[in-house]
Description:
This protein is of the alpha+beta class. Helix content is 26%, strand content 20%. It has helices at residues 5-8, 48-63, 87-97, 110-115, 152-161; strands at residues 18-21, 26-28, 37-43, 69-75, 103-105, 119-120, 122-126, 132-134, 176-177.
Amino acid sequence: MPVSPEILRIGSKANSFKLKGVDGMYYSLEDFNDKKLLCIIFSCNHCPYVKAVEDRINKIAKDNAGKSFALICINSNDENVYSEDSYEEMKNRAREKGFVFPYLHDDTQKTARAYDAVCTPDIYLYDENRVLKYRGRIDDNWKYEFRVTRKELQMAINRLLENKEIDFEIIPSMGCSIKWRNP
């Protein structure tokens, strides 16, 4: 049964943020105004779903680097629940994996809440007006890259860069729940 666009928030506008990256710089939504597409992925270090796809995420960022496209990952997990998701460990992970995209720390969790992020990875693809056009999975096999037959995030990127609508069913990403702080 297809998921409704309302549940995925298709058509909603991107929310402003200002977050520190593992490179020590601060990034905001406006820093990517020169890009036609912006992909925001809520991610983390510890989740097995993220670990299985992080090389694919890095490849998408590399493969689309020459296009009007930017990709960022945001870690919103409570590091008191998973110390592996601390800012220091984020820096280590980015260095070890050779991330070519900004990896941002949402230490207050305000950004994840503003986006209604649910899991890691939770993938949002915005057009030039920062209207959400895709909130789905990276591909059709999160666990085994060699079994992937449909690279759905890349398909969505290609469609939007060609000024076309996404004309295939959007299947939500699945992963670990975001580890929220106790209020």
